[in-house]
From TrEMBL:
Upper classification of the organism: Bacteria, Bacillati, Actinomycetota, Actinomycetes, Micrococcales
Protein name (Swiss-Prot/TrEMBL): Xylitol oxidase
PROSITE patterns named among the record's database cross-references: FAD_PCMH
GO cellular component, one term: membrane
The entry's keywords: Oxidoreductase
Biased composition (Basic and acidic residues): 246-255
Amino acid sequence: MGDAGVTWAGTHAFGAARLVEAASVDDVLRAVRTAPGRVKALGTRHSFNDIADTDGTLITVTGIEEQPLIDLTSPAWPTVNAPAGMRYGVLGRWLQKRGWALHNTGSLPHISVAGATATGTHGSGARNGCQSTALCRIEYVGADGNLHTARAGQPGFEGLAVGLGAYGVITEVTLSIQPTYDIRQDVYTGMPWEHLLSETPAILADAYSVSIFTTWTEPTVQQIWRKSGIGLDVAPPDEWHGAVRSPESDARLVDGDPDALTPQGGKPGPWNERLPHFRLTHVPSNGAEIQSEYFVPMEVAGEALAAVRALGERITPHLLVSELRAVAADDLWLSGAYGRDTLAIHFTWERSPEPVRALLPEIERALEPFDARPHWGKWHSFDAAAIARVHPRIGDARDLFERLDPAGRFVNDYLLRVGARQAR
């Protein structure tokens, strides 16, 4: 191992020979131009596999601290420019102070905007696309060591948006924004599993953002977090889909600090303090975990959940919690929601690598009839052939990356394994 350390949860030790901590775009330009061999960008280290690793030089972009810039002149929508390594929680606070908002956030506000969009990270909401759908512009240092700009509407932009770090080091992104809005977060318990299996799409579409938590073997769903837009959704009822609303902010999923969670109990607040599950000021957990996630068409949500639940006795002993979310369909080539409204089935595992590694192929076989796609930044066992079966545009993406990086400077073992780059 070089001096690059480990991922946030300690699930992968970086093997890079060199680490460059960039404090400016000029630093990135210089590093790419002078680095021997291969290069990869590194953000907030919230991936769980080797997607961001290299045997060459890692360039961290979290030290680039340029201020965001709002542009109200765009003919389509207002936008904000943000440095690649800025955390979503920091950008959210900055936007909220100025009366603006993003359409959604992931569960963690600690992740970087470039890393999250490059892997198709998402929140929940049947009408909300993944974080990458907000991208309007990407600025990156390419294999030639020069600064390049890609804009929405240009040929190939849909392939670059969820780009897996396969074509360059992103230095800045431009995201669409909207006027700020308030959200209330209510916790429900006691929903029968039978009702969830028969009504999954309706439940997940019944508020701005809905997250369902389970450990798979309980007779009723563990918890549901219903995040309603003030003035956008109807007021949450006391009883909903067979579940009962908790009047207090007392949700607790696994052992940890309950104060780390964003306010619940129906108290309205700004979007950036309700849509994430965790507060920016708190560590969301002790990090001793492994994460996996699979995306299936929403139209087969009930069948897919039943297939996973049939493995519940095998899953539960190694599981902290699972979360079920909705993601709206998009046209981004490597998005988990490409071309289809999507159910995201997430697993937060105990950090027990061998049992988890043995379980993943079983879960993937159970979900294979539903064309499940893995989250790029989390644990999975998909190889290039398996990816090709479920990602119809992987060949187009690979061709695009090869044109932009013909010498393979941004190739790594992960990209080769999933078929996103060609071997040399």
